[in-house]
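Entry — protein

Goal — fold tokens:
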Amino acid sequence: MNKLITCASVAAVGAAALQAQSVEGAAVTKPWSVSAKLRGFYDDNYATTPKDAFPGSPGKESSWGFNIAPTVSVNILRDITTIGVEYTYDLRWYEARTDNEIDQTHKADLNIGHMFSDRFRVDLTDSFVYSDEPSVIAENKGFYNTYYRTENNNLRNYAGIAFTGSLTEQLGTRIGYSNGYYDYEENGPGSRSALLDRLEHLISADLRWTFQTTTVGLLGYQFGIVDYTSNDLLTNPAWYPVGTVIPKAEVRNQQSHYIFVGADHKFTPEFGAAARAGVQIADYPDAVDGMEDNIVTPYVDVALTYNYADGSRVQIGVKNELIATDVALPYVGTGSLEPATSSQLATSVYGAIIHKITPKLRGMVRAGWQHGSFQGGYFDGESDDYFALDINATYSFNQYVGAEIGYAYDNLCSDLPYREFDRNRFYFGIIAKY
């Protein structure tokens, strides 16, 4: 739900560092901080209802409401160890709802870094979310495998550990492991659980060669596993002839090999680029007859960052890889069971800019576009196009109190029926930090 204020945007992938501070000048000068946001808002499609909703379902619904979101942060800085902990509680009340008028989100982040020496370092991270907004569930990844709000809260957790070392003055390495856990409360055939409950693992290793102080080249490899954990069927058996065997979620289990080269380069102290390009080879070991069991696709991850003035910066980027999808089988029976769609090839382009207009006034614009092509099954070759925009202005009265106003827009165009929607959100409020 936080994404009412910071837009459900693919730009979250590379623009996490572009989040505007709540209050200008509220620098970290103590090991803890507290902040709170109180906002009024208008949401013209809070349920993310498709334009061509299923017959008999409620249409697009809008609502005014208010939002309160307190945050507590703790930062411990030592000579060789840093620890950061942050927890946010987000409550949102919708005046137009007749029941279940309150949404709640819990979000907790942990970051630990430790230097064994000048040459060796280890970092641990964990990010936990319990929410019903898909943009919040996926915000660290930035890629959207589902765009729709659910009636139930859902759990997501990202965790990772990475070891970075310098083997010589020029040769270095980075070895890491991360996982993502998704658990949706909506159960049953064709439910969110059937389509998206999963445990993701990613093992990575690369070698890095420093050509000069501004340029580092690398050769990398990653091994990824996507293990779908639900025992539910991928679609409703009542839509098919009696005796039709409906597959379970496990038929979409995936194993991927990523092989890539890359470089990090500083054109100037303020302008830098990071690029990775290679190939992703995905196998589906539990695929049934007719399903895609092997997909080879380009793997691309490029980002440019430019700090062009004090308090002002811009970032743009692009990423291409296979992701999970909430599309598997047709919504209604087609007479015979089709193979399931295995995944979605997502190409995402994002951009974000923060500009310090005056010492007290700051503006932010973020935008992202994701083109997702379904791989295999009845919908093979069909696609989604998702666009998101977030515009925000923050005015700081002093280092503790400020005000903000903003607008967020989401639009999904799809080749599939009962899927397209748009959503406009306006908000205004006060923010405080101590």
Residues 179 and 201 are 4 Å apart (CA to CA). The radius of gyration is 22 Å. Residues 2-433 form a domain with the Porin fold (CATH 2.40.160). The first helix runs from residue 134 to 137.
